[in-house]
Amino acid sequence: MEMEKKIKLWEPPAAMGIKGTVFIIHGMGEYSKRYEGTAGYLNDNGYRVAMIDHAGHGNNIKRLDELGLVKDEFKSSLEEIVDSIEKIRDDRPLFILGHSMGSFMAQILLERGVGSDGFILSGSTRPSKVSIKFGYFLSGFLLIFRNKRDLILNKLLFGRNNLKFTGDKKFRWLSRDEKMVEEYEADPLCGFIPYTSYFKGLFYLLRESLKIGNKRNYIKTPVYIFSGSDDPVGVYGSGVEKLYEFYKKIGYRDITLKLYTKGRHEMLNEVNRREVCDDLLTWLDRRAER
Questions:
Q1: 2 pLDDT band (50/70/90 cuts)?
Q2: Which of 26, 120, 124, 125 is placed for a possible disulfide with 97 were both Cys, Cβ 3.0 to 4.6 Å?
Q3: Would the pTM count as exceeding 0.70?
Q4: What string of DSSP letters covers 205-230?
Q5: What is the DSSP string of 83-112?
Q6: Which is it for strands 7-10 and 47-51: parallel, antiparallel or unpaired?
Q7: Which Gene3D superfamilies match (predicted)?
Q8: Where are the extended beta strands (E) located within the chain?
Q9: How many angstroms separate the CA atoms of 236 and 230, rounded?
């Protein structure tokens, strides 16, 4: 079901009572269609699922050459996400799930006080301020001279992601499930090389996500972090543990970390995704009943 063309909404079976809504924020180089399996699982267990495609992604483009083109550091995408959340909000529990780049967007929403009964962070990390400042400066400097599909920045960020894994798939760092990787690589709307402006936007999101410790108004909000122990984005577990410890240190009272052994970046598309979804459902049900 489409709401106002942009919001993708998956509903539980008509005969089933709705426990709540999960708004999913997708990651870099992908779009809402890739979450149909997760949405179906949540629907079957009583949750509505809503999503939009970010600027420069999926169905939010007019031409293929617009894939990976972002003009305002994702600021309008953040506004669209907030507007979409408010449009689908009702009197039932609402949860926000962000994956990868979407997890940094979710952290920004948490810090900015967007109301939710819980935030879920998938494939995330706690990046260093120094690396973010350097990346934001470098991408901004390059953008002065050109805005093109940036092989240099793409290699700097992702060039080492496959070092730990054998095989010939370019995106094998995403999942151990070869079929899921093959589908990703075959999809013309996935795996693109972003423009320089996109990378500047990514570093903007990372920078903004670090501000989450400046306010303590939302420490009662439940936060669930899950990741694979072999996810290079999460620095093979250490970056995710830093994120978890950060939330604990600033006083979040309901903070949960789940690390899946040998799991890679996309745990919702991993070989043990049913286990991952079952754990997610258990967490959701306990918070929805409060």
A1: very low
A2: 120
A3: yes
A4: HHHHHGGGGG--TTTTS-EEEEEETT
A5: HHHHHH--SS-EEEEEETHHHHHHHHHHHT
A6: antiparallel
A7: alpha/beta hydrolase
A8: 2-3, 7-10, 20-25, 47-51, 94-99, 118-122, 223-228, 255-260
A9: 5
What are the tokens at 28? 């870099």
Q: Which CATH superfamily is domain 2-288 in?
A: Alpha/Beta hydrolase fold, catalytic domain (3.40.50.1820)
Distance (Å) of CA 185 to CA 18, 103, 180: 35, 22, 9
- pLDDT tens-place string over residues 165-195: 999 999 999 999 999 999 999 999 999 999 9
Structure tokens at 101: 């780049």
- Provide the residue ranges of all domains of the chain, joining segments of one domain with +: 2-288
Contact indicator for 150, 199 with CB cutoff of 8 Å: yes
Residues 257 and 135: their CA atoms lie apart, in Å, by 28
Phi, psi of 17 (to 5 degrees): -70, 145
- Amino acid at the residue 71: K
